[in-house]
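Chain A, query sequence.
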Amino acid sequence: MDLNALIVVLLIGAIAGWLAGAVVKGVGFGLVGNIAVGIVGAFIGNSIGLTLGGGLLGAILSATVGAIILLFVISLVKRA
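Chain A, predicted structure.
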């Protein structure tokens, strides 16, 4: 992975984390924490093979879904 691809993944993860924090209220970790969750969510969305369209918008959507899944799992663990 070159530097440009890494920057794109980080930006997509940041946008996805912000969107996931807005969707899943009460579970977020603040702006910086949600960005970190979004970056991990981007990797989760890619690892499960989630594709929601093509291009940049599809990447943001799949990363957002991955981040929402991660926030949901974190909320279940926090309750237990």
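Helices lie at 3-23, 30-47, 55-79. Residues 9 and 26 are 26 Å apart (CA to CA).
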